[in-house]
Amino acid sequence: MFCNQCQEALNVKGCTKNGVCGKKGEAADFQDRLLYVLKSISFFDLKAREYGLNEEATVRFVLDGFFVTLTNTNFDKKAIESYIKKGFEIRDSIKAKLPPGTLPSEKDLPAVATVTQENIESMDAVHSTQDEDIRSLRELLTYGLKGLAAYAHHAYILGYKDEAIYEFIEKGLVSTTDDSIGMDALIGLVMECGQKGVSVLALLDKANTETYGNPEPTAVNIGVRNRPGILISGHDLRDLEQLLEQTKGTGIDVYTHGEMLPANSYPVFKKYDNFAGNYGNAWWKQNEEFEKFNGPILMTTNCIIPPRESYKNRIYTTGIVGFEGLTHIYENEDGTKDFTPLIEQAKASKPPEPIESGTITAGFAHEAALSVADKIIDAVKTGKISRFMVMAGCDGRQKERTYYTDFAKALPKDTVILTAGCAKYRYNKLDLGDIEGIPRVIDAGQCNDSYSLVVIAQKLAEAFGLEDINDLPVSYNIAWYEQKAVLVLLALLSLGVKNITLGPTLPAFLSPNVVKVLVENFSLRPNTTVEEDMKVLLKQA
Ligand code: SF4
Ligand code: SF3
C-alpha cells in the first residue's frame, strides 16, 4: 500500500503498512484498484458520450465508487472488492455498446482500457510516476476529483445533476494515465477541477436549499433529553430526512453528530419534535462520544473511524460508508432506506449520557448572513468590524490543531470568523461574543456549504464596489484534512483568492516545484505560529 491523500499521511510522506486513519493495507490496495477501474470505465464512457450512448447508471457508479475511496469513508475490503467487480461489468458493457470502428484495435488500446481483474494489481502508476512534479500534479488532480465526485454525489442523491461535471471527472481520471499530458496541461486540469468545484458547490447549495429550505440562525441544543436516541453523523441530509420521518411518534429522539450539526438549522428538519439537537464534536472524538451515546449510530458519509468493541453492535453504515463487521443499511430500488433495525435497537437503549449542556448558534448560510448584510456592511464602514477571518475546513486529531482554538481566542474582538466544515469544533463552543448582534463566529454549515462563504464574499465585494475579491477585509486561515477540503481549496484558487494560509501541514503530495507554483501564483502559505500568522493575516489587503 501507499497512500498520501490526507493530512495525516505518515511523516507528511505517506502511509505504507496500515493507514494512520486505521485503513488496513489490503483495503488501501483495493481502493487503488477501484480507482483504476473507474479510470477504465471513464476511458470508455468518454467515447460513449461522443455517441450519446452514456448511461445514468455509469455516473452513479463512478460517483459512488470514487466517494468510497475518500479518507475515513470505507474500510471494508469485501465491499470495495464488490465495487471492483461491478466496475468491470459496467466497463465491459459500455465497451460492448460502442459502434464498431470507434476504438483502435485491441493491441493499440492503452493499458487503462485493457486492464483485467487478473492484472489490475499492478496497474495504477500514479504513485510510481518517475517525475516528481508530474506525480504530484496527478495526485493533486486525483484528490481534487475525489472531492468533486463526493460533492456531486451529495447533489445527485437529491436529484440535482450536471453532466459537465461528470464528464470532467471522467476526463480528469483518464488524464492521470496519459504520459503525453505534461506539467502545464496538468496544472490546467487542476485549475479546471477548481472551477468545476465552484459549480458543484453551487449545485449542492441549490439542492440543499430547494429541498430543505434556507438554513435559519438557530440555537442548537448540545445537551440531552431523557428518552432513547439515534445519532446520525456524516453529511447526507436525505438520510437524516428519512430517519426523522421514520422515527416520528416513536418516542425516539434524533441527534446530529459532527458534520450533521448544521442540519438543525433547516426549516424542514426543525419541524420534527423528536429532532433533539447535536451530540458531541468533530469526527475524531467519536470513539469516546459514541460509547457514551448509548443508542444506535448511523454513519452516512465520511468520517468514520475504526469503532471500539463497546459500541460495535450499535453502529450502522449506509450508502458509500463501510466497515467490516458492521450492519449496512442498503438503499432500496426507489432510493429509500429502511432504518427499522436502528429504531428497534433504540427502543431498548438507555438515553444518551450528557457530555455537554447549553446551546450553540448555527445556520448562517448565505441567505441568513445576507439578510443582515446592511448591518454587517455598516459595522465594517464604522470600523466595528475590522476583518473577517475565514477559518473553514476540517478538524483532525493531531494535537497541533489546538493552534486553531488558540488562533480563534487570540483574534482581536473586532474580527469575525466565517466558517464551514468540521474545523469549527475547535472554537464554536468558546464564548467569543458578538459585534452589535452579529455573532463573532458565522457558521455557514457543513464543508458541503462552503459555497455560502463564496456568496457572502462576493456580495460584500459588490457592496463595497470592489472589483477584486482580494481587496476585501477578508483573510483565509484554512484547515484541511481530507479530499473534500482539497477541492474547496482548488475552488477558492480558481476564483482568484490569494494569500490563503493552509495548515496544519501542507499536503504530502505537493512536490517542492508544485508548492512553488502555488506560492508564485496564489501566494499560498503554510501556517506557522499563532503570533506570526496573526501578524500576517491581520495585515492583508
Ligand atoms: Fe494515511 Fe490518510 Fe491515506 Fe489514511 S487516508 S492511509 S491516514 S494518507
Ligand atoms: Fe470533516 Fe471528515 Fe473534512 Fe466535511 S467530517 S469537513 S474531515
From TrEMBL:
Biological processes per GO annotation: response to hydrogen peroxide
Residues bound to hybrid [4Fe-2O-2S] cluster: H235, E259, C303, C394, C422, C447, E482, K484
Keyword Zinc-finger part of the UniProt annotation: no
Annotated positions of the Cysteine persulfide modification: C394
Residue sites binding [4Fe-4S] cluster per the record: C3, C6, C15, C21
E.C. no: 1.7.99.1
GO molecular function: 4 iron, 4 sulfur cluster binding; hydroxylamine reductase activity; metal ion binding; peroxidase activity
Pfam families in UniProt: Prismane
Cofactor binding description: Binds 1 hybrid [4Fe-2O-2S] cluster. Binds 1 [4Fe-4S] cluster.
TM region positions: none
Primary residence: cytoplasm
Gene Ontology terms: cellular component: cytoplasm
Annotated localization: Cytoplasm
Keywords linked to the UniProt accession: 4Fe-4S, Cytoplasm, Iron, Iron-sulfur, Metal-binding, Oxidoreductase
Described function: Catalyzes the reduction of hydroxylamine to form NH(3) and H(2)O.
NCBIfam families cross-referenced by the UniProt entry: hybrid_clust, PRK05290.1
Family indicated by similarity: Belongs to the HCP family.
Protein name: Hydroxylamine reductase
Organism whose genome encodes this protein: Methanosarcina barkeri 3
Gene this chain is encoded by: hcp
